[in-house]
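tool_call: predict_structure(chain=1)
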Amino acid sequence: MKAEFSFEVNRPFFRATGEPVSDLFLVDAWEDIGTWVMDHIEADDNLIIVGTLNKESYSTRGGREHLTIVKAKYIGHLNQDTFAGRLDSEATKGDSWSHELVVSIADLVRDMLVDVGEQHETDGETLTASS
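tool_result:
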């Protein structure tokens, strides 16, 4: 089973017009993860996605186009309320990050994964991914 979907990530920046900046990513989820996505993911869900970035190219009338796709290795629902306010989004806007900021981000991601893992265990779900 393969599931394909896109997700939007709001960046901590705003255009001069005040409009928020966001990025759109495409995700491929295979086998057990693909089945889980089909059964559990709905529009506007907050997710944590761990995977690899794969660059693909294809031909169009205008020439060669390139696309980066996230190959999902793990996906879970993210309880955004649990983690709101834990990270200073202003600090993430810098061109370089301090060691302390990187550690804070790593701790936040670890806590998110623990929270999602506990949700999967409560629901009796086990996710494995193919390589």
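agent: Strands lie at 2-14, 20-30, 47-60, 63-77. Proceeding to next step.
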